[in-house]
Amino acid sequence: MEEFTYTAQPARIVFGSGTLERVADEVTRLGRSRVLVLAGEHLRAVGDRVEKILGPLAAGRFDGAAMHTPVEVTDEALAVLRETGADCVVAVGGGSTTGLAKALAFRTGVDQVVLPTTYAGSEVTPVLGETGNGVKTTRSDPAILPETVIYDVELSAELPRALAVTSAVNALAHAVEALYSADANPVVDGMALDAIRHLARGLRGLDADPDARADLLRGAWLAGTCLGAVGMGLHHKLCHTLGGSFGLPHAPTHTVVLPHAMAYNSAAAPEAMRRVAEALGAADAPTAVFDLVVEAGGPTSLRELGLAEADLDRAAGLAVARPYPNPAPLTREGLAGLLHRAWAGERPAGGAVSPIEALTAQVVATFAGTEDARLRRLLTDLVPRLHAFAVDNDLTQAEWQQGIDFLTRTGQACSDTRQEFVLLSDTLGLSSVVDVLDNSRTPDTTPSAVLGPFYVEGPPELPQGADVSAGLPGTPLYVDVTVTDTEDRPVADAVVDVWQSNEDGFYDVQLPDLDGPVLRGRLRTDAGGRLRFRSILPSEYPIPDDGPVGAMLRAAGRHPYRAPHLHFMIDAPGHRRLITQLFVRGGRYLDSDAVFGVKEDLVVDFASRTGPTPDGAPVAGEWRELRYTFRIATTG
Ligand code: NAD
Question: Which of 84, 144, 292, 598 could lock onto 59 through a cystine, CB 3.0 to 4.6 A?
Fold first, then answer.
C-alpha cells in the first residue's frame, strides 16, 4: 500500500475563452469593491480593458512589475495600493506580475484575482520569491495563494509563439518533477500526467491545431497546481541558480535544462520516466522532451542564452551547496557534466529503450507530418494504444491472425443493407460512447441514442395521421408526439424520420419478400409542433447474428437481443439534429440491450388502451398509445 499526504490548495479556477469579461463578477463574488489593477509589461492594453470591465470597481493602476519581484518595486506598488484604499488586486500578466500581486497580498491581506498570460503556473501556488539586496528569498504561506484565477484562452493566445514555447516547457518541468518528487501522491501524479499530455499536444499543434492554446493553458494550470502541491527537485534548483546568480531568463532556461536534468535523474526514477514517456507517446522521456523542444523551435543550449562556458563549474558548485531531495544523488562533477551538455545543446543520450518502445516511437513519428491536425492527433494516439494492447496481452501471432480474419469477415459481411462494422461498434459499446460524447451534451434536451444499422436514407414522405405499418399485423399503436425547443416552444415543420421493427422483430431491409419500404417514413410536425401517426407495437429482436459479430456474441455467451423501441431522427432549421429511440416500458432486454443503447430517460409508457383511437378509428381489442415530447436544442 502506498502511503501519502496531500494538501489541496483552495483556489477558485475559472477556465474558458473570453472569461476576462467575468473579472468584475469575480471581484464582487469575493465581496471586494476597490481594485488595484496590475498589468504586466506588454499588457497595458489588456490592463485598460480590465479597468473598463471593472468600471466603478477600478480604484487604481500599477504597471511596473519586474522579473524576480524586486522589493523596491513592491514598495512602490504598495504606496499606490494604500493611496487608493484598494481591497483587491487584479493582476494580468506572466509570473512576474503574479509575483507582485502575491507580494502585495502577503503584506496587506488584499484578495487577488489573477489572469495569467503565460504558462508559468505561479497563480496556483502559495509560494513567493522576492529579491532584495541582490538576494532572492522564497517563502510559502497560505495567504500568498491567489483567491481566484481566471484562465482566458483568448488572452493567453496573444503570447508570442517563442514565449509560448518556452513558457509551456517551464510548465512541463513542474509536471515532470512532480512525478519524482519526495512528496509525490496519486492526486498530483494524475494531474501531472494530464498536464504533460496537454502540454505536449499543445506544443506539437502550435502552428496548425486551433485547440493548441487551450491545451497549453489547461496543461499550465494542472502543472502549476502540481508545483503548488509538492516539492521540486534538481531541475528547478538548477534553473533557480542560473536565473538568480547568472541572470538567465526564466522560461528559456527551463526549456534548455529540462531534458538534461531528466536524463540525470532517469536511472534513479525509472517509473516516473516511464510514465512521462508514455504520456508523450515516446520511448525515452528525456530525449522526447529534447525533441519536442527542437520540433517547437525552442532554445536548446545555455550558450545561446548568454551563459559563459567559464561559469559552468561555479554554477555546479552553487547548485550542490545546499542539499535538497532529488532521486539521483547530487555531485559537483555530475552537475558540471549535466551543465556542460546543456551549455553545448547536446541531445541527451537515450535511456534503455526496448525494441518495441523504439518501434512505437518510430511509427508515431511517421504521422508527425500529417497535415490535418485532428487526423494527426487521432493517429498518433491510436498507435501507442494499439501497441500497448498487444504488449499488455502478450498477443500471439495466431491471435493476431484470428483478429485479422475476424475483421476481414466483418468487412465481407457488409452490403448496401447490412453494416457489420456498425454492429461491431454497437456491440462493443463504442457507438454509445461516441453518442454520449457527441450528442448528449445539453442536459435540457431529450437524450440521443445510436442511429443503429437499419436507417435508410430518403424514407417515403407520409402525411400526418398516416399508418406507417401499411396494415402489417401487430398490436395497433397510436403515436402522438410533440417537438419543442428547450424553452418549451413548439417547433413547427420539423422533419421527423421514424423507423421500427415489425411484430416479429424484423426491419423491412431484412425481409427480401417485402415490396418497398415499410415501417419507416418521413413526416412533418404541424404548426403546434405535433405529429400523429399510426403503427404497430415494435417488439424485441436479435441484431443480425449470422455473421462474425454474432459469432463473437456466442463466444462470449451474450444474447443478441435489442429491447423493443421506435427510432426517431428529428431535423428542423435552426436546431440541432436529434437521433434517438423510445423504448417500450416493461419490454424485454431493457437491462441487457445488446448494443448498450437504453437510457433510463428514453424508457417510456406505451400505454395499453381499448376502444377507438383518438382519430376516431375503431379498434378491436387492445391498442397502445405513445405520447411524448421531444426537446431539441437550437444551434448557435
Ligand atoms: P514574465 O511574467 O516575466 O513574462 C515573460 C515575458 O513575457 C515578459 O516580458 C512579459 O511582459 C511577457 N508577456 C507576458 N504575457 C505576454 C503577452 N500575453 N503578450 C506579450 N508579452 C507577454 O515571466 P513568466 O515566465 O511568466 O514568469 C516567470 C517569473 O515568475 C519568475 O520570476 C519566476 O520566478 C516566477 N514564478 C514564480 C512561481 C511561484 O510559484 N512563485 C512559479 C512560476 C514562476
Answer: 84
Query: Which residue among 71, 174, 250, 305 has the greatest number of ligand 1 atoms within 8 angstroms of its CB, and so is best to mutate?
Result: 250
In-domain check, residue 454: yes
Nearest alpha carbon, ligand 1 atom 39: 122
Residue 149 placed within a domain? yes
Residues with CB under 6 A from ligand 1: 40-43, 67-68, 93-97, 99, 117-118, 120-122, 125, 127-129, 158-160, 163, 167, 227, 250-251
Three-state DSSP class for residue 454: coil
Phi first, then psi: give them for residue 78, nearest 5 degrees. -60, -40
Rounded to whole angstroms, the maximal C-alpha distance in the chain is: 102
Ligand 1 center to 39 CA (angstroms): 12
- Is there a domain that residue 384 lies in? no
* DSSP per position, 19-80: GGGGHHHHHHHTT---EEEEE-TT-HHHHHHHHHHHGGGEEEEE----TT-BHHHHHHHHHH
Q: Are β-strands 35-39 and 495-500 bridged in parallel, bridged antiparallel, or unpaired?
A: unpaired
CATH code: domain of residue 114: 3.40.50.1970
Residues 146 and 199 both lie in one domain: no
Show Cβ contacts of residue 612 under 8 Å, excluding neighbours closer than 6 positions.
618, 619
**Do 75 and 120 fall into the same domain?**
yes
Calculate the alpha carbon distances from 211 to 96, 202, 220 in Å: 26, 7, 14
Least-confidence region, from 76-85, 284-293, 445-454: 445-454
Find out whether 351 and 286 touch, Cβ atoms under 8 Å.
Answer: yes
Residue 615, SS3 per DSSP: coil
From its phi and psi, is residue 623 left (phi > 0), alpha (psi between -120 and 50) or beta? Answer: beta
Task: Determine the distance separating the centroid of ligand 1 and the alpha carbon of 67, expressed in angstroms.
Answer: 7
CATH code of the domain containing 250: 1.20.1090.10
150 & 182 share domain = no
If you write DSSP's letter for every residue of 502-551 in order, what string do you get?
-TTS--GGG-TTS-S--SEEEEE--TTSEEEEEEE----EEPP-SSHHHH
Question: Do residue 501 and residue 470 come from a single domain?
Answer: yes
| Strands 12-16 and 148-152, sheet pairing | parallel
Pair 150, 195 in one domain:
no
Total number of domains constituting the chain:
3
Domain boundary among 328, 355, 382: 355
pTM over the 0.85 mark: no
The predicted pLDDT at position 357 comes to: 72
Query: Band of the pLDDT at 152, cuts 50, 70, 90?
Result: very high
In this structure, are 145 and 169 located in the same domain? no
Question: Is residue 394 a part of any domain in this protein?
Answer: no
Q: Could you list the residue range(s) of the whole structural domain that residue 48 is in?
A: 12-157
Residue 180 carries which side chain, given as an amino acid letter? Y
- What are the distances in angstroms from CA 391 to CA 379, 398, 400? 18, 15, 12
Helix/strand/coil percentages in the chain, nearest 5: 45, 15, 40
User: pLDDT tens digits, residue range 245-266?
Assistant: 898 999 999 999 999 999 999 9
User: What one-letter code names the amino acid at 367?
Assistant: F
Considering the domain architecture, whether residues 184 and 133 belong to the same structural domain is answered as no
> 440 pLDDT band (50/70/90 cuts)?
low
Contacts of residue 563, defined as CB under 8 A and 6 or more positions apart, other chains included, come to 540, 583, 584, 587, 588, 589, 590, 593, 597, 598
Report which of 81, 181, 98, 187 is spatially closest to residue 147, judged by C-alpha positions: 98
The CA distance from 505 to 152, in Å, is 53
In DSSP terms, 634 is beta-bridged to 575
Q: Are residues 83 and 193 in the same domain?
A: no
